[in-house]
Write a structure and sequence with these properties.
2 domains; 12-stranded mixed β-sheet; Aminopeptidase; 8 helices; alpha+beta
């Protein structure tokens, strides 16, 4: 068996198999790390048997082996760790193989994030008729967004141009913004998120933004997903109150070289 550097496009068929085997999707945070990784193809003669991905030369973001070659998975996993001197693993708990291979080793497990899915429960969008408006952002909103939201995002103008940024106003006050980032790996899914104006926090604004983003996604045939840092209890409560639910975690696992067996 040999391992070759490759492009994402060259292993697209393997990525498709990998995604089909997951028990739930993951959001844009992990997706961005994966897509900016270096990819390596594992072959047995001319046959593709799997692949893995390394971000920033030290973070293993994916490891996949086809079913018929799983008896070699543990050995190939350790070979990948040693070959690249991997320091950490980003392991979503929806990935049974990757999780199992990591658990086989005496590594330190840190909880990184929650991944959420849409509960499909309808929650009424909160609106003060004639006062509150939720809509796509336009170029004229840019100065207010920059003033209120600061460095929450980079390149607000590009988000607006791509019609991925939403504004939530009460009269002339910008209460917050919502974002919708279409998945590049999962067809029909989009990561959603929000930022609430500090002057209007603890008033249910974040919940209202997520509820409206869920509705927008549903109306456009898209399934909403999202995530938050594991220790951000306020964000977790807001997302759950808005109808998002979680059964999946992202683990940041520290590799101990002396513990690899």
């Amino acid at each position: 068996m040999v391992i070759h550097s490759c492009t994402y496009d060259e292993i697209q068929h393997l990525v498709t198999e990998y995604l089909e085997g997951l028990s739930s999707p993951f959001d844009s945070f992990l997706e961005d790390h994966i897509l900016s990784s270096a990819f390596y193809r594992i072959q047995d003669g001319p046959e593709d048997i799997g692949y893995y991905a390394i971000h920033n030369q030290e973070l293993l973001t994916q490891f996949y082996i086809r079913q018929s070659y799983l008896m070699h998975a543990q050995r190939l996993f350790l070979e990948a760790l040693e070959r690249h001197a991997v320091k950490n693993l980003f392991v979503p708990t929806c990935d049974e193989l990757f999780l199992s291979l990591a658990v086989d080793q005496d590594f330190k497990i840190n909880k990184q994030a929650y991944f959420f899915q849409d509960s499909q429960i309808d929650i009424a969008a909160r609106f003060d008729e004639g006062e509150e408006v939720f809509r796509l952002a336009v170029e004229a909103d840019l100065p207010t967004i920059q003033q209120v939201c600061g460095d929450f995002l980079n390149d607000y103008d590009q988000w607006i141009a791509k019609k991925l940024l939403f504004v939530y106003y009460r009269g002339t006050d910008l209460l917050g913004i919502g974002i919708m980032d279409s998945s590049k790996m999962f067809d029909g899914f989009a990561s959603i998120g929000m930022f609430t104006n500090e002057a209007f926090r603890k008033q249910g604004i974040g919940k209202a933004i997520i509820v409206n983003l869920r509705k927008w996604c549903k109306d456009h045939g898209v399934t909403a997903i999202c995530g938050c840092w594991y220790y951000n209890e306020a964000s977790k409560r807001t997302l759950e109150s808005a109808g998002m639910v979680t059964k999946t975690r992202l683990l940041n696992i520290e590799v101990k070289a002396q513990s690899i067996t």
